[in-house]
Amino acid sequence: MIKRLVVLGAGESGVGAAILAKQKGYDTFVSDMGEIKPHYAALLDQHRIPYESGRHTEPRILCADEVVKSPGIPDTAPMVQKLIAQHTPIISEIEFAARYTTAKMICITGSNGKTTTTSLIFDMLRRAGLDVGLAGNIGNSLALQVAKEDHKYYVIELSSFQLDNMYDFRADIAILLNITPDHLDRYNFEFQNYINAKMRITRNQRSEDAFIYWSGDPIIDREIRKLRPAATLYPFGEENAQNVAFVKSNTLVVEAQQPFELPVALMSLKGKHNQYNSMAAAITAQILHIKNEVIRESLTTFAGVEHRLQYVATVRGVRYINDSKATNVNSCWYALESMTTPTVLILGGKDKGNDYSEIDKLVLEKCHTLVFMGLHNEKLVEHFSALGYSPDGEKRYIDTHTLADAVQACYEAAHCGDTVLLSPCCASFDLFSSYEDRGEQFMQCVKQL
């Protein structure tokens, strides 16, 4: 009997899942409450997959044997609630795709650093000549790659939303960089619900698998003690007897397999957070028996990722840095920690239940001016006013509601030798379609100064 698979959401992951499902003989239907982008509609037409946009037709959805749900659709969505009520299995695209490949799965999650670490690992594997695909939150749909050009290895960036709907999936190598409050609006403002989602990355792992994690995170440490993962543990962090990677005398040391050392000054990615990202990547490469010279080449030449501490331009002696990918407070903390000059900081966007006190010390230490950019800046004004920032004080804030006004305010407030840092702490969806859109517009505004 042919199984009916319904895909909710016709973006990168949904369309990929639909194409794989059609290839594997499923009766496949795609439904999206929004408008489907022309590129994805053309792919569905090309593969003769029926779909609808702008609505969810209940009779065509509720008869599904199984549903693949886009990670962007919350469980509180009315159609999802009806599927849950009738006990229809709901899974992620990653879970579905993994059924049809025997590839090694290298999976990365964390509140911060996962895109950089994922990209760095992919760079190492590709330099080593391995047959590798990039998937998840970056790269192409895992399902589409499995359908069209299945690889022997996949490096997969996983968000908490993707992990929520993964049940039988098993990571050969799981990497957990950190856990700090994020997306609490999606998790009923319960931090533990978000923690539980992140810890699912080690679900189903066996003793022959690897679990790489930052040992300095007290939440991860607590959860490991509680859950006791079956995988072999590879902790990294400060120099101690436990960690297999650390910095000693300004040298990155990795001892997961063969000894590896590299002076921190030679690493292309700067900042303590990138030292941790590099440790996780190098441990992964060693587990996969990649040669030290390849690891060294990658760590010394890797250019980083777009919208993450990305240099834009220098205008009148002021450096402009695009860190639009900093969509939570902890990510902004890492950006500020890497600043070495007086800073004008742009904050604001869609608040996700943020606690800005985490960056108070660094803001006071590094930032003479804060520029708020968003439709609703009241929470930012209230918090940083209490910290001593005011519209006309020595420590100053400027309240703006468009990107152009924010960049102009920075231009007027910054002095030669300063850095203007866009590291918003917030999601982009009040003024922009994505953090990429926000970053691109910021760079355009800077280049017009």
Q: What can you tell me about this protein's structure?
A:
- The chain has helices spanning 12-23, 38-46, 58-61, 78-85, 93-98, 114-127, 142-149, 160-164, 191-199, 218-227, 272-287, 292-301, 329-337, 360-366, 378-386, 403-413, 435-447, and strands at residues 4-8, 27-32, 51-53, 66-69, 90-91, 104-109, 132-136, 153-157, 173-176, 210-214, 232-236, 245-248, 251-254, 260-263, 310-315, 318-322, 343-347, 367-373, 396-400, 419-422.
- It is α/β, with parallel strands linked by helices.
- The protein folds into three domains: 4-91, NAD(P)-binding Rossmann-like Domain (Rossmann fold); 98-301, UDP-N-acetylmuramoyl-L-alanine:D-glutamate ligase; 310-447, Alpha-Beta Complex (Protein-Tyrosine Phosphatase, Chain A), CATH 3.90.190.20.
- The chain is globular and about 70 Å long.
- The termini are far apart.
How many extended strands? 20
Largest sheet: 6 strands, parallel
Q: What coarse outline follows from CA principal-axis ratios?
A: globular
The average pLDDT is 94
Number of domains: 3
CATH class of the largest domain: Alpha Beta
CATH overall fold name of the largest domain: UDP-N-acetylmuramoyl-L-alanine:D-glutamate ligase
Helix/strand class: alpha/beta
What's the CATH H-level superfamily name of the largest domain?
Mur-like, catalytic domain
Widest β-sheet, arrangement of strands: 7-8-6-9-10-11
Tell me which CATH architecture of the largest domain applies here. Answer: 3-Layer(aba) Sandwich
Distance between the first and last residues' Cα: 64 Å
Radius of gyration: 23 Å
- Summarize the amount of helix as a percent range: 25-40%
Number of helices: 17
Strand content: 15-25%
In the predicted model, the low-confidence regions spanning at least 5 consecutive residues are none
